[in-house]
Design brief:
Number of strands: 0
Order of helices and strands: HHHHHHHHHHHHHH
CATH class: Mainly Alpha
Number of domains: 1
Helix content: over 70%
Shape: globular
Radius of gyration: 24 Å
Distance between the termini: 41 Å
CATH topology: MetI-like fold
CATH superfamily: MetI-like
Strand content: under 5%
Structural class: mainly alpha
Length: 283
Amino acid sequence: MKDKMSLWFRILYIFLIIIFIIFMLSPIAWSFIMSITPQVEILSNTTNYFPENPTLENYKSLLSLDYRQGDLFRRGIINSLVAAVISLFFGIPIAVLCAYPMSRLKFRGFSLFRNVLLFTMAIPVFATIIPLYKIFATFYFLDNIFALVLVYITSFLPLAVWLLISYFDTLPKELEEAAYIDGYTKFRTMISVILPVSYPVIFASALIIFLTTWNQFQIPLILAPSNATKPIAVVISEFVTKSTVEYGLMNAGGILAIFPPAIIALVFRKFLIKGIVGGATKG
């Protein structure tokens, strides 16, 4: 009887996994079908799910040097990559320098401070976008990718700091005490002893920062009005004219824009899992 129940649980588990995979991949598959469908067929009155004359023209337009859409697409990819790299360059050191002292220096009101830190992640973007726009307009920060990155950092920093604090809490203090006996300063102990054993959560935080920055839409839509700073998400959304919507280009751009974060996520997925699990064990 027990073996029979176990078999049914396995079947149910596999069934649910298949449903989940279908649910997650269906939008991507549909987007790919739309990307290879000619605009005429998209706008025609038909019940066909697959194009009668599939074409790669949309991909050629985005990857070609001779089309305006291709130029916009490349600029968007570059802007997103630049923003992600700058965010990583500043975000990871700031997160580590905030999290490590907070993990080791307990003080009155620490729990309240950590809860407030978590609460900031629940603040919706549009609750702050008007004040941000006013600040950016006043100090001439509009259309400035470095100023835009500062907003990105403040949006993901609470989560990164929380993950790092929780992970540092799990590390035995004997590691630091041994380093102090050898004459290490607190800063050198953090760099030489703590960080080398914390690479999973640091990689996880870096991956979260990259994906968060890459997928930004609402903030740059308001604060980055020109093509010089628009990220790829905003560029793709603007393949719309007064007379028509270029559905094929939008979907082709979405498919191509998936590859950079998808490749990075696949390469570093084990660090993401280790980091999130390790950072959630305490706190």
